[in-house]
Amino acid sequence: MFEHDEVVLEAKHVTRRFPASGGRTLVANDDINLKFYKGKTLGLVGESGCGKSTFMRFLVSLDTPSEGEILYRGKDITKLKGEELRQNRQNIQMVFQDPTSSFNPKMKIRDIVCEPLMNFNRIRKSEKDAACRRLLEMVELPGDFADRYPHNMSGGQRQRVAIARALALEPEILILDEATSALDVSVQQTIIELIVKLQKEKNITIGFICHDISLIQSCAHEVAVMYLGNVVEVLPAKNLSEHAVHPYTRALIGSIFDIGMDFGKPIEEIKGEAPSPLDVPAGCPFRGRCPKATEKCAAEKPKLHQIGADHEVACHLFDKEDK
Ligand SMILES: Nc1ncnc2c1ncn2[C@@H]1O[C@H](COP(=O)(O)OP(=O)(O)OP(=O)(O)O)[C@@H](O)[C@H]1O
To answer: Where, if anywhere, are coiled coils annotated (predicted)?
Structure first.
């Protein structure tokens, strides 16, 4: 993917198993391999429960995989401990769906926004006012919001505060976990525009988790599609509807666009619901819902493989030997 771009962060063979009832094991991430490029946005899309958040939590060291590596500039951050782990948090910051749950309601915006700067001794107490004003203005909020409490702000304004706090330490990577999903569509759009603008100004690498493929398309450079813990397709976001080939990606596209619209390729309708991640079928995880599944799909799990310069897919329909 994007061969000439600089890889900042790379997940290699990342698997996460959770123990489940009855001695069973839930595989939330199954051998994930993804790259994040300098100044670019990788969108991670898929239905609820497919393992998006589980994966992104590794990137910000909120959890560690059962197997695999997360390399930040070549160093495996899953092995970091103590002070090294703490210092690394400056490089990769995260914004969650609901900032209210991560904000202390008794803290003023000034203290919320400046907390990371104070924690890492980047500023003195006397510099908080100016730092907060600068950060609020960066996210296009008035500087005097510093004296407000989170509950005196709208959802969109709170999310701007969350972005200001996440960018306070000037991280190289920003992870947005459904960061606009709770907002009204019009507000969502203004937050996306802000993120895109800040990315251009600061050359930030972004990981954008979202269940909405149309939203991802509007702000990501590259899209990775997940299904039941597996990445099934990775491709450029530009003209995604024309280029996507995996039956699941096409079904996701079909769920947002008019089935009758002509995108150059037929759009399959998605059947049924995703099985429980405790009952992932053998072979291709999507085969139970795939209109084109064959015997090979039941017998053998397709591996993610390259089918174009910037395009990978895990689907037997696109195996080289079958072409
Ligand atoms: N700590 C945990 N213990 C057990 N199972 C977990 C744990 N965390 C996640 N899971 C399971 O792993 C699977 C993937 O969850 P995850 O939250 O990563 O999905 P998601 O794609 O982010 O979905 P959503 O958009 O609903 O958050 C789900 O079946 C979930 O129940």
So the answer is: none
